[in-house]
């Protein structure tokens, strides 16, 4: 049994999809979440900048002696993959669990990937999918607008702007006949109702947050690092910009009031 918390970070709100899933599959675990809201989005930054941000975010979480580092950011998961793999703590990103799930569930071998520009340009999801299914036909689409739409809380199923953006991004994926689509950014599961409606019931969406949470559960159980069964997990949230902007939207996304659990942190102290 290990009472240390799980550390989770993302560029902003998107990682809450991973937190939401973690709370379901690991209800006894304490979670420390950092959302780098002062520097969101990451997906349009250079690789060098993303790696600098990643190092700072990880260093902050390490001050809590986290037993596992969970990168709830598709951009960091792909661009900074080598850094993640060499951490002392067990760590994971979203690419490997999501790619494995997509390769497992696709029926026709045609898989779509929706991600940030940096994620798509890295080719990481493609490589992971082909490790499991060499014959897969992959259609990757950069969806830079979607992160901003989620951060602005424009996630209502009938939002005209978000629907128009999703429809445009999905067009090449659906034209390729994909029967499986990876939501390759943890912001995107928050738009799953819109994406599913446009894609149709014949397309399976891979929720990167859920797949990552299931992988975390498997790793902690394998290493004997789970918390006590009788413990009710707690969450603390830290952001690099005004907390109110974050928790107002987070309250809706998580279905609970987290205002008393949300704090500002000066991330530039962790260089």
Q: What general form does the structure show?
A: globular
Beginning-to-end CA distance, first to last residue: 32 Å
Number of helices: 12
Low-confidence stretches: none
Largest sheet: 6 strands, parallel
How helical, in percent, are the residues? 40-55%
* Number of β-strand runs: 10
Query: What order do the SSEs take from the amino end to the carboxyl end, as H and E?
Result: EHEHEHHEHEHHEHHEHEHEHE
Mean pLDDT, all residues: 95
Which structural class matches the secondary elements? alpha/beta
Radius of gyration: 17 Å
Estimate the strand proportion: 15-25%
* Main β-sheet, spatial strand arrangement: 4-3-1-2-9-10
Question: Can you characterise this structure?
Answer:
There is one protein chain. The protein has helices at 16-25, 47-62, 74-79, 81-85, 95-105, 117-122, 124-132, 144-151, 160-175, 192-199, 208-223, 243-254, and strands at 6-10, 31-35, 68-71, 91-92, 110-115, 137-142, 180-183, 204-207, 235-239, 262-264. The chain has 271 residues and is an alpha/beta fold. The two termini are 32 Å apart. 49% of the residues are buried.
Could you write a compact summary of the structure shown?
The chain has 271 residues and is α/β, with parallel strands linked by helices. It is built from twelve helices and ten strands. The mean pLDDT is 95.
What key phrases describe this protein's structure?
about 270 residues, globular, 12 helices, six-stranded parallel beta sheet, single chain, alpha/beta
């Amino acid at each position: 049994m290990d009472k240390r918390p799980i550390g989770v970070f993302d560029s902003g709100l998107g990682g809450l999809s991973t937190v939401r899933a973690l709370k379901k599959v690991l209800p006894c675990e304490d979670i420390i979440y950092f959302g780098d809201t002062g520097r969101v989005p990451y997906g349009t930054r250079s690789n060098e900048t993303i790696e600098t941000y990643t190092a700072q975010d990880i260093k902050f979480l390490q001050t809590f002696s986290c037993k596992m580092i969970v990168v709830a950011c598709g951009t960091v998961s792909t661009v900074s993959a080598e850094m993640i793999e060499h951490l002392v703590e067990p760590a994971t990103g979203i690419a490997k669990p999501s790619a494995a799930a997509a390769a497992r569930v696709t029926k026709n071998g045609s898989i779509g990937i929706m991600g940030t520009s940096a994620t798509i340009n890295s080719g990481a999801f493609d490589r992971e999918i082909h490790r499991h299914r060499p014959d897969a036909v992959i259609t990757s689409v950069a969806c830079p607008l979607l992160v901003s739409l989620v951060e602005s809380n424009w996630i209502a199923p009938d939002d005209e702007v978000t629907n128009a953006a999703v429809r445009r991004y999905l067009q090449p994926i659906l034209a390729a006949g994909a029967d499986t689509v990876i939501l390759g950014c943890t912001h995107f599961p928050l738009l799953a109702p819109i994406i599913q409606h446009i894609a149709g019931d014949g397309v399976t969406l891979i929720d990167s947050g859920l797949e990552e949470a299931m992988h975390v559960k498997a790793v902690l159980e394998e290493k004997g690092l789970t918390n006590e069964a009788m413990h009710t997990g707690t969450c603390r949230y830290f952001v690099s910009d005004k907390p109110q902007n974050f928790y107002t939207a987070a309250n809706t996304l998580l279905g609970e009031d987290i205002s008393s659990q949300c704090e500002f942190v000066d991330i530039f102290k962790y260089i």
